[in-house]
TrEMBL record:
<dbReference type="InterPro" id="IPR043128">
    <property type="entry name" value="Rev_trsase/Diguanyl_cyclase"/>
</dbReference>
<dbReference type="GO" id="GO:0005886">
    <property type="term" value="C:plasma membrane"/>
</dbReference>
<feature type="domain" description="Response regulatory">
    <location>
        <begin position="6"/>
        <end position="122"/>
    </location>
</feature>
<dbReference type="Pfam" id="PF00072">
    <property type="entry name" value="Response_reg"/>
</dbReference>
<dbReference type="InterPro" id="IPR011006">
    <property type="entry name" value="CheY-like_superfamily"/>
</dbReference>
<dbReference type="InterPro" id="IPR000160">
    <property type="entry name" value="GGDEF_dom"/>
</dbReference>
<dbReference type="GO" id="GO:0000160">
    <property type="term" value="P:phosphorelay signal transduction system"/>
</dbReference>
<dbReference type="GO" id="GO:0052621">
    <property type="term" value="F:diguanylate cyclase activity"/>
</dbReference>
<protein>
    <recommendedName>
        <fullName>diguanylate cyclase</fullName>
        <ecNumber>2.7.7.65</ecNumber>
    </recommendedName>
</protein>
<keyword id="KW-0597">Phosphoprotein</keyword>
<dbReference type="GO" id="GO:0043709">
    <property type="term" value="P:cell adhesion involved in single-species biofilm formation"/>
</dbReference>
<dbReference type="Pfam" id="PF00990">
    <property type="entry name" value="GGDEF"/>
</dbReference>
<feature type="domain" description="GGDEF">
    <location>
        <begin position="165"/>
        <end position="294"/>
    </location>
</feature>
<dbReference type="GO" id="GO:1902201">
    <property type="term" value="P:negative regulation of bacterial-type flagellum-dependent cell motility"/>
</dbReference>
<dbReference type="InterPro" id="IPR029787">
    <property type="entry name" value="Nucleotide_cyclase"/>
</dbReference>
<dbReference type="InterPro" id="IPR001789">
    <property type="entry name" value="Sig_transdc_resp-reg_receiver"/>
</dbReference>
<feature type="modified residue" description="4-aspartylphosphate">
    <location>
        <position position="55"/>
    </location>
</feature>
Length: 303
């Protein structure tokens, strides 16, 4: 992890905030909230905190309730919370830990204790983030992997069932990739994969999910994107890939695109339609875009 970790300090007493800040300001980037509601707001804003130091007794919403809400949110559930409080009974500490806090520091604030325990939790958080990133990304291309793609698609389809909207998918298959490996070697094949992955990553929006699906196949999930808009995007990518010359190897790719018909369709069927469209693109001469029909048949579009 690069740069300073971000810590959110939450306490309704300014003097406590000042003591905590004096302990931590030289080693960490700090955010400050003096109410539980403000804590919840700041916890979801970039940069997402790496750790929250949370008072328990506050007027608008106590720290226990704040912690409960943090753990209920998909955005904030993985942020470690340390309670810093005057409530020092064993029952209070046990309750705080049961809510999901990673530590419990009692007041009066002791700077050496705060510094040591914060340092430990920040290191653990950074290690956890690194392991999570490794688990969700393809090591060669740094794109998301198949596991993350399926999880993200399931979440997006679930969201669409509640709020509506559009979701499209683009499947990309590098043409004649086996011949690339056979003729130029697997090391150059990896260079081709990385070059194509860079194009896909650089040309997509932050909300889209770009994943290496396996071998020479890539998949892009496009939020709030119609099939026609997906086709336009695919043509831009197809053209950029065609212009690549990694290791002096000419590269093209075949595209299959599909739009989710309803939340009842499910990701597997949506993916199968896009895959059938890629197969059709291969049959039609490759280096083109095929728009999938509802029933796994396909219509040729593009070059």
């Amino acid at each position: 992890m690069t740069g300073k970790a971000t810590i959110l300090l939450v306490d309704d007493t300014r003097s406590n905030i000042e003591i905590l800040a004096a302990c931590l300001q030289h080693n960490y980037q700090l955010k400050v909230a003096m109410t539980g509601i403000r804590c919840l707001e700041l916890a979801e804003k970039t940069p997402i905190p790496d750790l929250i130091l949370l008072d328990v007794v506050m007027p608008d919403m106590d720290g226990y309730e704040v912690c409960r809400k943090l753990k209920e949110s998909s955005v904030t559930k993985d942020i470690p919370v340390i309670f810093v409080t005057g409530k020092d009974s064993d029952e209070d500490e046990e309750y705080g830990l049961q809510l999901g806090a990673v530590d419990y520091i009692t007041k009066p604030i002791r700077p050496a204790i705060v510094t040591a325990r914060v340092g430990t939790q920040v290191i653990l958080k950074q290690q956890s983030d690194a392991l999570r990133s490794m688990a969700l990304h393809d090591q060669l291309t740094s794109l998301f992997n198949r596991h993350f793609l399926i999880e993200a698609a399931t979440n997006k389809i679930s969201r669409l069932s509640r709020h509506g909207g559009k979701l499209s998918i683009m499947m990309i298959d590098i043409d004649h990739f086996k011949l690339v490996n056979d003729q130029f070697g697997h090391q150059n094949g990896d260079i081709v994969l990385q070059a194509v992955a860079d194009v896909l990553a650089d040309c997509n929006r932050k909300e889209d999910v770009v994943a290496r699906f396996g071998g020479e196949e890539f998949v892009i999930l496009l939020d709030h994107c119609s099939l026609d808009d997906t086709q336009d995007k695919a043509e831009q990518l197809r053209s950029k890939i065609e212009q690549l010359n990694p290791g002096k190897i000419h590269v093209t790719a075949s595209f299959g695109i599909a739009e989710l018909e309803s939340e009842n369709e499910g990701f597997e069927h949506l993916l199968a339609r896009a895959d059938a469209a890629v197969y059709s693109a291969k049959e039609k001469g490759r280096n083109c875009i095929v728009k999938a029909n509802k029933d796994l048949e396909s219509d040729v579009k593009g070059k």
